[in-house]
Amino acid sequence: MDPLVAAASVIAAALAIGLAAIGPGIGQGNASGQAVEGIARQPEAEGKIRGTLLLTLAFMESLTIYGLVIALVLLFANPFA
Amino acid sequence: MHYSGLLLDMLNGFDPMPLAKLEVGHHLYWRIGDLTIHGQVFLTSWIVIGLLLIASIAATRNAQRVPSGIQNLMEYALEFVRDLTKNQIGEKEYRPWVPFVGTLFLFIFVANWSGALVPWKLIHLPEGELAAPTNDINTTVALALLVSLAYFYAGFKKKGLGYFAKYIQPTPILLPIAILEDFTKPLSLSFRLFGNILADELVVAVLVLLVPLFVPLPVMMLGLFTSAIQALVFATLAAAYIHEALEGHGEEEAH
């Protein structure tokens, strides 16, 4: 593999993961905060709130995972190598 | 596709434990005619399917009025899947879709957990390694395309050609986005499942490479948790898409 392509791929993979983690991080923080607020206000609804929270967290998580898929493609199945 | 192992060569260079090898992009290739298929995925899928078949046969072979043992477990699973489908599709139309959504959920769930719980790495293959079938993108794409077919079928069966009215329903300006959505749905479904499972296995493998004992255990527990959640998410989304096709107003936005 061309060393330039290798270096660029590694940097691109790191950027893909790092940048893709910012947005979902903020989103998950917001969602969890709101969920805690909801539970504090209405403790009897805890089960329902937790179920919905876990599901929505998984959706946000998947955005980072898309970045991870790109990073893995660059590292293990690089189309430019 | 041409695979190159950049990080892979590095990691395989120092290999203190035979259990901790990372093999992404190496497969056990089988040739059938002109097709090249990934054999290790088929082997593990068959084992998962076999497990599910044995469990269902054992649960229903001698059904009792008061369930116990395996029958109890499978009834619990059935109720769980039924409630999931009912919550998404609604009281009136959920019943015919319970088998489909249930099969998706159970297959993905058992496949994900088999990758974490069964010590596949002890069995050596000539090339590649056994792992969860869902950590191969082909498996997840197949499952996601099945979901696409299912919701198109649901829409056609209910409304015939009137199903296409939903593409221009609020305004024809949104037609490209509506068409694009049909492509992004299976794309995001498959990538989400594939990425999560592969990420789990990679994180565990890297940690085992660094510290072979005890330290990877919490991460493995987290992996079990996310695997279960991903199976739930896949089944929930499949049911939500089917519901959307049955309703046809496209108000729900779920990604």
TrEMBL record, chain A:
Residues 11-74 form the V-ATPase proteolipid subunit C-like domain. HAMAP family: ATP_synth_c_bact. The gene is atpE. Key component of the F(0) channel; it plays a direct role in translocation across the membrane. A homomeric c-ring of between 10-14 subunits forms the central stalk rotor element with the F(1) delta and epsilon subunits. F(1)F(0) ATP synthase produces ATP from ADP in the presence of a proton or sodium gradient. F-type ATPases consist of two structural domains, F(1) containing the extramembraneous catalytic core and F(0) containing the membrane proton channel, linked together by a central stalk and a peripheral stalk. During catalysis, ATP synthesis in the catalytic domain of F(1) is coupled via a rotary mechanism of the central stalk subunits to proton translocation. GO terms for cellular component: plasma membrane-derived thylakoid membrane; proton-transporting ATP synthase complex; proton-transporting two-sector ATPase complex, proton-transporting domain. Gene3D superfamilies: F1F0 ATP synthase subunit C. Keywords: ATP synthesis, CF(0), Hydrogen ion transport, Ion transport, Lipid-binding, Membrane, Thylakoid, Transmembrane, Transmembrane helix, Transport. This is ATP synthase subunit c. Belongs to the ATPase C chain family. The keyword Ion transport applies. CDD domains: ATP-synt_Fo_c_ATPH. The record marks 61 as: Reversibly protonated during proton transport. The chain crosses the membrane at residues 53-77. It comes from Petrachloros mirabilis ULC683. GO terms for molecular function: lipid binding; proton-transporting ATP synthase activity, rotational mechanism. It is a multi-pass membrane protein. It is found in: Cellular thylakoid membrane; Membrane.
From TrEMBL, chain B:
It is found in: Cell membrane; Cellular thylakoid membrane; Membrane. This is ATP synthase subunit a. GO terms for molecular function: proton-transporting ATP synthase activity, rotational mechanism. PROSITE patterns: ATPASE_A. Belongs to the ATPase A chain family. The chain crosses the membrane at residues 37-59, 97-117, 137-156, 193-215, 221-242. It is a multi-pass membrane protein. Key component of the proton channel; it plays a direct role in the translocation of protons across the membrane. GO terms for cellular component: plasma membrane-derived thylakoid membrane; proton-transporting ATP synthase complex. Keywords: ATP synthesis, CF(0), Hydrogen ion transport, Ion transport, Membrane, Thylakoid, Transmembrane, Transmembrane helix, Transport. The keyword Membrane applies. PANTHER family: ATP SYNTHASE SUBUNIT A, CHLOROPLASTIC. It comes from Petrachloros mirabilis ULC683. InterPro entries: ATP_syn_F0_a_bact/chloroplast, ATP_synth_F0_asu, ATP_synth_F0_asu_AS, F0_ATP_A_sf.
